[in-house]
Amino acid sequence: MHDDIKIKEECGVFGIAENTSCDVASQVYFALYALQHRGQESCGIAVNDRGVITHYRDLGLVYEVFNPERLASLGSGKMAIGHVRYSTTGNVKRHNAQPLVVKHIKGPLALCHNGNITNAYELRRRFEMNGAIFHGTNDTEVIAYLITNARLESDSIEGAVEKAMYDLKGAYSLVVMSAQKLIAARDPIGFRPLCIGRTQSGGYVVASESCALDSIGAKFVRDVDPGEIVVIKDGEIKSIRTHCVNKKPHICVFEYVYIARPDSVIEGASVHEARLRAGEFLAKSHPVEADVVIGVPDSGLDAALGYSRASGIPYGVGFIKNRYVGRSFIQPTQVMRDNAVRIKLNVLKAVVDGKRVIMIDDSIVRGTTSARIVKLLRNAGATEVHVRVSSPPFTNPCYFGVDIDSKEKLIACRRTLDEICKDIGADSLEYLSLEDVRKIADTENCDFCDGCFTGDYPCEVPKQMSKSKFETKIQEQLEFN
């Protein structure tokens, strides 16, 4: 749980290629349910039936957008792709929902994207100066233009993707569906996860997280390597490694802290185990005498269990989360913000009343929601509230897909540790160290991007253009025209 509207996760992508025509839309539907945590603003599915692509996308959660009739209207096919979206670039409008479907002279194309293209504005301006017309404000449309333009000069769709990647900067995990092929591609840095699985009938799937494979009974095969392009056609799979310049991905460490589902395995490391380890490190580095350890749902729960095990202090279920309150419930008014925490989270008084409480959360951004949660605990009778955070302080923006846009909004850039502790009303406050956050994932398969904590990024970042300014620039341009 974070501030006002919690840190928004990522997008989730999924693709399936079966050997015979079947109800692939339902397979994607279940997979998107598993990936719902990565994006709750919009979703969509595109189905390929012998080269004809039928699709639907809209604002809302998966179950809201796809009722049985809508899902059935997509029909059967051998291939399909799907997407759940949180907007990193581009506003919350239906035309920014994915998949994007393009009718091209060399055949139809559908595209899903997870990440953030840091040179999207420059690329968009280049296309517009050559007569291109954009229908939305997201950076995925820029990727679509790159691929379709490259397709005019390429012998294959995978060749067009390979060529387009030379112009793309930033984070991207792509799923592309042409008339005959399913293609997955990952940026050369490997910021965002992407994995390959095998269905029970011998087909292939690609997904942002392994939990999506589990949801349809697919077996995990391997992760897509940084810079790799995977091409699936007629039950065969091949790899193009032109852009594979890094031996290890620099995965966003926040995938393990907060973004990914705990039952996923990323780059060989269990997300659940990583969060347990974060809690254990917190207990060893920042102990405090208390009666109970509780976690803020959802990603704070595993870390709280780890803290409890390492400290010997009993673990308790301190909050009940209302599962029926979606993100759209929270409106941008002060009254609604104040009510939102009380309605989304309710304290179990019997667990905290008269006790010294250790509250574990995954991060603090602005501090406003943390203050409200601490107040809830005190109102329920907690005599002390000690806050422990399973990540270091945010001191820098993220340019690669997480909603951390400017230093001005980050409390750790404006206030000292003691001041933050006082602001949120806690008896003590401590964060996980940089050294420890780099050790939470028990894997040798990857390095990490921790630029939001350190300011050190594994590639060049925009000098003047933030994610939010991208959309502002586009809107100014539209109004001018």
Describe the fold and architecture:
This protein is of the alpha+beta class and 481 residues long. Helices cover 31% and strands 26% of the residues. It has 17 helices and 23 strands. It has a seven-stranded antiparallel β-sheet. The protein has a six-stranded antiparallel β-sheet with strand order 5-6-7-8-12-13, with helices on one face. A hairpin with a 4-residue loop joins strand 7 (170-177) and strand 8. Helix 5 (140-151) packs across helix 6 and helix 9 packs across helix 10.
Chain-wise SSE layout:
Elements lengths: L11 E11 L1 H11 L7 E8 L2 E8 L2 H4 L2 H6 L3 E9 L14 E5 L2 E11 L2 H10 L10 H12 L5 H8 L5 E8 L4 E5 L8 E4 L5 E4 L2 H6 L3 E5 L5 E5 L2 E5 L9 E3 L1 H6 L5 E2 L2 E2 H15 L6 E4 L3 H13 L7 E3 L12 H11 E3 L1 H4 L3 E6 L6 H12 L4 E6 L27 H8 L3 E4 L2 H4 L9 E3 L1 H4 L12 H14 L1
Parallel strand pairs: 14-23, 17-20, 20-21, 21-22
Antiparallel strand pairs: 1-4, 1-10, 2-3, 2-4, 5-6, 6-7, 7-8, 8-12, 9-10, 9-11, 12-13, 15-16, 18-19
Helix pairs in contact: 5-6, 9-10
